[in-house]
Amino acid sequence: MSRHVRLLAPLDLDFLRLPNRIVMGAMHTRLETLDRPVERLAAFYAARARGETGLLLTGGYSPSPEGRIEPDGPLLNDESQLDLHRAVCDAVHHAGGRIALQILHTGRYAKLPECVGPSAIRARINRYTPRALSTEEVWRTIDDFARTTALARAAGYDGVEIMASEGYLINEFAAPATNLRSDEFGGSFDNRARLAVEIVKAVRKAAGDDFMLIYRISSIDLVDGGVPAAETVELARRVQHAGANILNTGIGWHESPVPTIAASVPRAAWAFAIRRVKQAVSIPVIASNRINDPDVAERLLADDVADLVSMARPLLADPDFARKVREGRADEINTCIACNQSCLDGIFAERAATCLVNPRAGREIEFSDAPAARRKRIAVVGAGPAGMAFAINAAERGHQVTLYEAASALGGQLNMARMVPGKSEFNEMLRYFRVRLKRLGVETKLGVRADAESLARGPFDAIVLATGVKPRVPQLRGIGHPKVVSYVDVLSGRKQIGRRVAIIGAGGIGFDVAEFLLGDADESRVPDKFMHAWNVDPAARTGGLHSATIKAKRSPRRAVHMLQRKTDKLGANLGKTTGWILKARLQEAGVKMIAGANYLAIDDAGLHYAVGGEEKVLAVDHVVLCAGQESDRDLFEALRSRGIDAHLIGGADVAAELDTAKAIEQATRLAVEI
Ligand code: NAP
Ligand code: SF4
């Protein structure tokens, strides 16, 4: 029997059967901003339907122009917009899937000057102050939800999800902090809950009884003045009574000071808040946030935390997640590592979402799955992310691949990343690569340094070099001093590091090294430790945060200084959705950040540097070099001198932008073409 028996159990609604408990959560993809949007969106959702996902939810569509996420953001308020939706529904149904449309009014989070809310209180993450809706406009907004529901039904959707968490409009009406109204939609709990209840009633009326109505409730707001737990459970009951078939759960508002989905959040950390909702109602409840693994999902169902499990990013990472679980191939799932790099950070940078571990996501129409016309023998040198991704994709197309790695283990730079507190998900990436390489029969030669001569003599039709990078060593007096170590020495545990440390270079790796030297890996593994570190009140007596006065203090194990030559703020280039987490934790640990540093020398006294012409010395035990990397192209040059052409990918090609997402994408594209 499968160990995921609950996850694979069907769920019967009276009018619809879901074949399993796996839901693809709604996610704003911005795919509509790319070329061929209809074809692209249809292919994106159809791939997840073919992968046997129990239920798909679209990204949010606003029921009115002022509720859009941004100018030209998704909107469904008129029949003329139905062509896209019909194409998506047809594609999903043709692939054997089921799909519901999410209706999202973003309220005061809309990046629009005309944004609206319950009261004219600006969100700290938006530069626009909302206009308070009049009572009449609130009733009109309820009608807008009903109209969009009728349109969704006409397009062929199997249901709708009303988005009422994450601090969007309906959540704003429910919370005392953002609702200062004195009409029938403000003040008492009955009044603050009225918008939610009336929307559900209106949507049910517009949809009829044989249409799925999911309501996404905020199970814990994680903001001061959010909805207290006692009101959340009462709201859940009222929403069920008003006509919802399923409750989905959300965690935290977008402006919350607590990370909710980043890799530094323990898996399934929010189960306590979801269980509270589940215990209040008798309709099925969906769990969400930081669930990326079928074993974790199964445990949530076994522990009666929820009846279904929502995964948005994990389905971006692997469209075949559900099918692999059913076929007993869970170890072949390409696991979402919760990095946010290519999905959410991409969206914030106004790009369309894709995925670091799966560059095909959102680009299904750009990649062919066709087998190679001619089976080639290909040598790949370097088993970091680029080399392994190429080997897998090439082998999937039928090529015969031999993968050489000088080290005794697969992984390259991944082996360092996975040592950083909060980055243990990189272990999953390695597991995926390892299992797929084996199942595809890629010949893997570990501990073998491929040289130009043996490659030239080998039987290969093509050679792909993914030889990676070498850490950059700055030219600096005293660079050979015993105090000087590289980030590789630190993260690999090769060197014991003293209590006073200076870090030269403040890119992603400089920040990772600082966290490694200060962090507590348990905070990202043990929910109680995480909640304590981030001041979360699981009882959610107010909005889910303890008062600032009893905030937990971090006791640093080391005194760390980070330096860079640029005069900008340190960490300016870290990911938008995760950089703030790292910066906040390092700040709490008292890390000193020094910009505009001119490095002078390293000697027994420590690191000598100048800022603004003033010379200073940091008395430290170690100076860690995190000064970027340079491409390792020795083998490429050696082959070229023999007149042999090789393909260069990953950091060996461009070290300046050494980036796992780019490396995997470049490798995948080459494998599809070769
Ligand atoms: P990086 O982001 O390019 O940062 C290199 C740092 O070294 C910069 O702070 C730079 O600042 C400094 N530097 C460059 N040349 C130097 C020199 N000759 N002497 C002294 N300092 C020098 O590189 P990285 O930190 O090694 O990260 C590599 C890649 O890994 C990044 O592109 C990133 O995509 C990825 N990564 C990201 C994260 C994350 O976002 N959390 C974490 C890990 C890795 P100055 O030039 O101002 O001194
Ligand atoms: Fe997950 Fe990172 Fe892919 Fe986003 S980019 S889906 S967080 S692996």
Q: How is this structure best described in words?
A:
The chain has 674 residues and is an alpha/beta fold. The protein has three domains: 11-366, TIM Barrel (Alpha-Beta Barrel), CATH 3.20.20; 377-465 and 632-673, Rossmann fold; 484-520 and 555-627, FAD/NAD(P)-binding domain (3-Layer(bba) Sandwich), CATH 3.50.50.60. The protein is 32% helix and 17% strand. The protein contains 21 helices and 27 strands. The strands form seven sheets. The protein has an eight-stranded parallel beta barrel with strand order 3-4-5-8-9-10-11-12, surrounded by seven helices. Strands 15-14-13-16-27 form a five-stranded parallel beta sheet, with helices on one face. A hairpin with a 2-residue loop joins strand 1 and strand 2 (16-18). Helix 1 (37-50) runs parallel beside helix 2, helix 5 (189-207) runs parallel beside helix 6 and helix 17 (508-518) packs across helix 19 (579-588). The longest helix has 21 residues, at 135-155. It is globular, with a radius of gyration of 26 Å. The structure holds NADP nicotinamide-adenine-dinucleotide phosphate and iron/sulfur cluster.
Radius of gyration: 26 Å
Q: Based on the coordinates given, report the CATH architecture of the largest domain.
A: Alpha-Beta Barrel
Output the CATH homologous superfamily of the largest domain. Aldolase class I
The assigned structural class equals alpha/beta
Structural topology:
Layout: E1 11-13, E2 16-18, E3 22-24, H1 37-50, E4 55-61, H2 82-94, E5 99-103, E6 116-117, E7 131-132, H3 135-155, E8 159-164, H4 169-174, H5 189-207, E9 212-220, H6 229-242, E10 246-251, H7 271-280, E11 285-287, H8 294-302, E12 308-310, H9 313-317, H10 321-326, H11 344-348, E13 377-381, H12 385-396, E14 400-405, H13 414-417, H14 426-439, E15 443-446, H15 452-457, E16 462-465, E17 469-471, E18 484-486, H16 487-491, E19 500-504, H17 508-518, H18 527-533, E20 559-563, H19 579-588, E21 592-594, E22 597-603, E23 606-611, E24 614-618, E25 622-625, E26 629-631, H20 634-641, E27 647-648, H21 660-673
Parallel strand pairs: 3-4, 3-12, 4-5, 5-8, 6-7, 8-9, 9-10, 10-11, 11-12, 13-14, 13-16, 14-15, 16-27, 18-25, 19-20, 19-25, 20-21
Antiparallel strand pairs: 1-2, 17-26, 22-23, 23-24
Helix pairs in contact: 1-2, 2-3, 3-5, 5-6, 6-7, 12-21, 17-19
